[in-house]
UniProtKB/TrEMBL annotation, chain A:
<keyword id="KW-0396">Initiation factor</keyword>
<dbReference type="GO" id="GO:0005634">
    <property type="term" value="C:nucleus"/>
</dbReference>
<feature type="compositionally biased region" description="Acidic residues">
    <location>
        <begin position="551"/>
        <end position="593"/>
    </location>
</feature>
<comment type="similarity">
    <text>Belongs to the RRN3 family.</text>
</comment>
<feature type="region of interest" description="Disordered">
    <location>
        <begin position="536"/>
        <end position="593"/>
    </location>
</feature>
<dbReference type="InterPro" id="IPR007991">
    <property type="entry name" value="RNA_pol_I_trans_ini_fac_RRN3"/>
</dbReference>
<dbReference type="GO" id="GO:0001042">
    <property type="term" value="F:RNA polymerase I core binding"/>
</dbReference>
<dbReference type="Pfam" id="PF05327">
    <property type="entry name" value="RRN3"/>
</dbReference>
<dbReference type="GO" id="GO:0006361">
    <property type="term" value="P:transcription initiation at RNA polymerase I promoter"/>
</dbReference>
TrEMBL record, chain B:
<feature type="compositionally biased region" description="Acidic residues">
    <location>
        <begin position="212"/>
        <end position="246"/>
    </location>
</feature>
<feature type="compositionally biased region" description="Acidic residues">
    <location>
        <begin position="182"/>
        <end position="193"/>
    </location>
</feature>
<dbReference type="GO" id="GO:0006362">
    <property type="term" value="P:transcription elongation by RNA polymerase I"/>
</dbReference>
<dbReference type="InterPro" id="IPR041178">
    <property type="entry name" value="RPA43_OB"/>
</dbReference>
<dbReference type="GO" id="GO:0005736">
    <property type="term" value="C:RNA polymerase I complex"/>
</dbReference>
<keyword id="KW-0597">Phosphoprotein</keyword>
<dbReference type="Pfam" id="PF03876">
    <property type="entry name" value="SHS2_Rpb7-N"/>
</dbReference>
<comment type="similarity">
    <text>Belongs to the eukaryotic RPA43 RNA polymerase subunit family.</text>
</comment>
<keyword id="KW-0804">Transcription</keyword>
């Protein structure tokens, strides 16, 4: 019968009365089918199911009939009990979102009625809606092209889905708690194209607007996804050899051109490339993205990942930028939670943490809260030592790099850290036996490194006394006791990162504070326990990238005392090979190195999103101008002779331009 | 009958398997687990968890079994549950009406619906013009959004972790029906989803949650085992924690 009624519709001229007649027939037959099915005779119901699915898959325009069906279903919505889940499933699978708007409206009304009458359909409905938010998902069905309205753009699709979701959530307040799983499941995996990630990311950020409860879970989901990609990139890069990395850098990262030739290392002609692509439109970026034919598969994999990371961070930065103040407070709190849960314990993430770096730039309150949180981690003995060390690295790197951080809190932090170290010495110095094993005092060394790093970046403001310029000859009051720390039996200058220490020595020497070269250049430290470190590609080290030019994230070596060509000792690239050769060098500073500590806020090199960071990021300013020559000895003499502390470039100044060619 | 309530309190003993990251603060781990149960229908408790109190560790030591990284703790918890009883009346607020059903919210959160065949057709009639159910005589009050109604629970459906109450107006016609008429806010029949002008606001929270305050709360003893493997930190985290608990 049903077939008959359907068939008939195709022949009847559709005058209004006929139409209502047809609707009546539909209604009564469907109702009839439901009643029969409840009694056990499901044949009529099956024929309805058949009819719907054939309409859905028919090539002709079946819109009119489907509309009538949907209206009919809307009118008998209370019949769709659990027994009829199959039918509901078929109806839910109808491709509605790309069809013309009259169908979409009728359909969305049906959805609303359905979940209102039977809240348990919330889950399948929401699942399907969320899936529609994926890029291209609505068009995946090959038939979709036939039935969809060409005027329906992906953007309209999403608008529709959001509108329906919003209404459904308003009907079912307990619904959002069921959404986070489907949202997480639908998140495109990291191997999918950039476009998929970004599209979906934008959409779920939009969901936060009308489902505020989901803010926290969605954001932590996003951060988790981002950090995974981030770490993966670092891992991939670690596995590459230098040449690959250079190639990749030049192509993918925003790079100041790095001269590869070892002999010209000093003569880098670095031009800051300001090719910040506009990222206003998602489409632009993706379509005319970068083309790298010459890349190997692995490279292009990394390249794709970098693009993804870049794009996702860009969206989030933009999102943070557009928040209102209150929302931002909220965001900060959530991000702090996520930071502690995900970012801080994650080793080797490189860019994700810039979300916090950026967010903190909006208010000094954030800065203080963030730094205090970290300080608390460092100072609390019950915190796992890995976290303590990581926190110390975060503190130092953050204070060093955050241009917006005022000097007041910096001083407080320095005081705090110095006092911590002094206490530590008092309590632990006597415990050192005849052999010092630095690994047992990780936290101490990481704090000392933090102090040194902060001092290196902030000494100008620290040494200034009310407008009198820089005072020479003494430590700033905040660092009182630093000499005691340095001379302690812990020998921090020997153990701590070599590059850092040398820079520190140079600075203190220039400032006539102290002369520390003698301390760490004396190689006779037999009492320090040696770790015959395996020379694997993984090098334990702090990175001081942009001491010598921004560089991709990689290992950096300081052990080239026998290599007189390299003045700076911190060139991160090219030395791996040397490293291999020097393996049998008897006294290798690296052996005293602590396990790897990475500075979290290293120069930000992602092309599209870097413009958010550039202006708030403190680049390294070289300590003095007379450093273009070879080894330390001559450096020292030069310094003694010249004693030139040239007027320093202001912190905002890009040192690259100022670099001696 | 009068003494019955839709709320109940149960005392449970749970065995939870906690992830190692909670080793120094097992209480936090337990709470984390319990938080996930809030506002969920839990079949074992036969109700929606509204709150939990009185978390107590029943053992001094936690067990780590074989090579599983999780440690199991026995805790006693008191749950307050919402568990609607059949054949008992309840009050809800209408948030959606259609020709075939009335959708309501109980206490502002739990969904209920009255299908059209459970509506007293004698008293109420669907009015297509005002898009509401209307009383056929008397004051001709309307059932529309915002309207507060009392109805009988005839069924409680549990599917997809959700609980839906099916109500009826047929039983006890004297006790059920409109309590307070809703502000007339007719829903636009033609909502245009293409232009996002849908001005749906979240349904006004029903502030006055009245706890039927009977002291004879049922006490049940439920014991169950829960697997908690959801705390997986699968980011490349280097998390170290000292591996002992006494």
């Amino acid at each position: 019968m049903i077939e008959n009624s359907i068939k008939s519709t195709q022949f009847i001229e559709k005058s209004p009365t006929d139409k209502s007649l047809i609707k009546e027939t539909f209604l009564s037959t469907t109702q009839d089918a439901f009643n029969e099915a409840l009694k056990g005779n499901k044949s009529k119901l099956f024929s309805i199911i058949d009819e719907i699915s054939s309409l859905e898959s028919s090539d002709e325009d079946s819109k009119e009939q489907l509309i009538i069906w949907m209206e009919t279903f809307s009118k008998i919505v209370s019949n769709f009990t659990q027994e009829f889940q199959d039918l509901v499933g078929i109806i839910l699978d109808i491709n509605w979102v790309t069809r013309s708007s009259d169908f979409a409206i009728v359909y969305s009304q049906f959805l609303e009625n359905l979940v209102s009458a039977h809240a348990f359909y919330m889950f399948p409905v929401a699942e399907r809606l969320i899936n529609l938010l994926c890029w291209k998902k609505p068009y995946e069905n090959p038939r979709a092209k036939l039935v969809s309205d060409p005027s329906v753009t992906p953007k309209i699709v999403c608008d529709r889905v959001h509108a329906v979701l919003k209404r459904i959530i308003s009907l079912i307040p307990s619904g959002p708690s069921f959404l986070i799983n489907p949202i997480a499941e639908a998140f495109p995996d990291k191997f999918q194209d950039t476009k998929y990630q970004l599209w979906y990311l934008k959409n779920i950020l939009r969901m936060i607007e009308y489902i505020p409860v989901l803010k926290e879970p969605i954001l932590s989901l996003i951060v988790e996804k981002i950090i995974k990609i981030d770490v993966e990139i670092q891992v991939e890069i670690e596995d590459m050899d230098d040449q690959d990395i250079m190639d990749l850098q030049n192509l993918v990262f925003k790079m100041e051109k790095n001269d590869v030739d070892e002999n010209d290392l000093e003569e880098k002609h670095e031009e800051p490339i300001s090719n910040i692509l506009d990222f206003d439109d998602l489409n632009d970026n993706i379509e005319d993205g970068f083309l790298f034919d010459e890349l190997t598969e692995e490279d292009s994999n990394v390249k794709g990942m970098v693009e993804k990371l870049d794009g996702m961070l860009n969206i989030l930065f933009d999102y943070i930028l557009k928040l209102s103040n209150e929302e931002r407070d909220d965001m900060f709190e959530i991000l702090m939670e996520i930071f502690q849960k995900t970012i801080l314990p994650t080793h080797n993430s490189r860019y994700t943490q810039f979300l916090i770096f950026y967010l903190c730039s909006f208010s000094p309150v954030y800065v203080n809260n963030f730094v205090c949180l970290l300080a608390q981690k460092v100072l609390t003995p019950s915190v796992p030592s890995v976290i303590q060390v990581a926190s110390a690295a975060y503190i130092s790197s953050f204070i060093a790099r955050a241009k917006y951080m005022e000097i007041g809190p910096v001083k407080t932090m320095l005081q705090l850290l110095t006092r911590f170290s002094l206490n530590y010495i008092d309590q632990n110095e006597h415990r050192i036996g005849s052999v010092l094993n630095p690994k047992h005092y990780m936290i101490f060394y990481s704090v000392v490194e933090a102090i040194i790093l902060i001092f290196l970046y902030r000494w100008r403001s620290l040494m200034e006394t009310e407008g009198n310029g820089i005072t020479y000859g003494q430590l700033p009051p905040e660092l009182k006791g630093l000499d005691r720390i340095i001379q302690s039996r812990f020998n921090p200058l020997v153990v701590c990162n070599r590059g850092l220490v040398e820079e520190f020595a140079k600075l203190t020497h220039n400032l006539e504070i102290m002369y520390c070269y003698s301390i760490f250049e004396n190689k006779n430290y037999s009492f320090i326990k040696k770790h015959k470190s395996k020379k694997s590609s993984k090098r334990p080290k702090i990175k001081m990238h942009d001491l010598k030019g921004s560089d991709e994230d990689d290992e950096d070596d300081e052990d080239n005392d026998n290599n007189d060509d390299d003045s700076e000792d911190y060139d991160d690239e090219n030395e791996d090979t040397e490293e291999e050769e020097d393996d049998d060098d008897d006294e290798d500073e690296n052996e005293n190195e602590l396990p790897e500590t990475l500075l979290p806020f290293e120069p930000y090199q992602l092309k599209n999103s870097c413009h958010f960071i550039e202006n708030i990021y403190q680049n390294w300013t070289p300590i003095s101008n007379d450093e273009d020559d070879s080894d330390i000895e001559s450096d020292v003499t030069d310094n003694i002779l010249a004693m030139s502390i040239s007027p320093m470039a202001p912190p905002a100044f890009n040192w690259i331009n100022n670099y001696p060619a | 009958m009068k003494n019955q309530t839709h709320f109940k309190q149960i005392v449970t003993r749970l065995v939870l398997k906690l992830s190692p990251c909670f080793i120094s603060e097992p209480r936090k781990g337990v709470e984390e687990y319990l938080k996930k149960l809030l506002m969920r229908y839990v079949p074992e408790f036969d109700g929606i968890v509204i709150s939990y109190t009185n978390i107590q560790f029943l053992q001094k030591n936690a067990e780590i079994l074989f090579d599983s990284p999780y440690f199991s703790v026995k805790v006693g918890v008191i749950f307050n549950l919402f568990s609607p009883k059949k054949n008992l009346e309840i009050v809800g607020k209408v948030n959606k009406v259609s020709a075939d059903h009335i959708g309501l919210l109980l206490y502002g959160v739990i969904n209920a619906s009255i299908p059209s065949d459970k509506i007293r057709k004698k008293n109420f009639k669907w009015d297509e013009n005002s898009f509401a159910w209307k009383e056929t005589f008397g004051e001709r009050r309307k059932i529309c959004n915002g309207c507060v109604m009392r109805f009988t629970i005839v069924d409680v459906l549990k599917a997809n972790d959700m609980l839906t109450v099916i109500g009826s107006l047929l039983e006890k016609p004297n006790d059920t029906g409109i309590i307070k008429e809703g502000e007339d806010e007719p829903e636009p029949m033609e909502m245009d989803i293409d232009e996002v002008k849908t001005n749906t606001t979240a349904p006004p929270k029903n502030n006055k949650i009245v706890w039927d305050d009977n002291d004879d709360d049922e006490e049940e003893e439920a014991e169950e085992e829960e697997e908690d493997d959801s705390n997986n930190n699968d980011s490349d985290a280097t998390e170290e924690s000292d591996d002992n608990e006494d």
